[in-house]
Amino acid sequence: MATKCDSCAREESDLLAVHRVYVTPESWDTEEKVEVMAGVERWCVVCRLHYPHQPLQE
Q1: Do residues 58 and 18 make contact, with C-beta atoms less than 8 angstroms apart?
Q2: Angle at the Cα of 22 (from 7 to 44), degrees rounded to 5?
């Protein structure tokens, strides 16, 4: 049974629970910043390959 990916809404049967990660790269006037979101989302393989995330620790 396919369900929708929380990131792209693609219909998939192979979804993985992840935490979304926001990355701000270092620049001459800012430090690098990595924010791991507390909420759990279910992502398809395409989103897991292209976007920063952290697999859910079960």
Answers
A1: no
A2: 25
Question: For the chain, which residues make up each domain, given as ranges?
Answer: 3-55
Cα 56 to Cα 49: distance, rounded to the nearest angstrom:
16
Angle at 13 between CA 12 and CA 16, to 5 degrees: 90
Q: What is the DSSP letter of 57?
A: -
SS3 for 7-31 is CCCCEECCCEEEEEEEEECCECCEC
Please state, rounded to an integer, the average pLDDT across all residues of the chain. Answer: 93
Q: How confident is the model at residue 2 (pLDDT cuts 50, 70, 90)?
A: confident
- Provide the edge-to-edge strand list for the sheet that holds 16-24: 33-43, 16-24, 53-55
Contact 6, 43 (CB under 8 A): yes
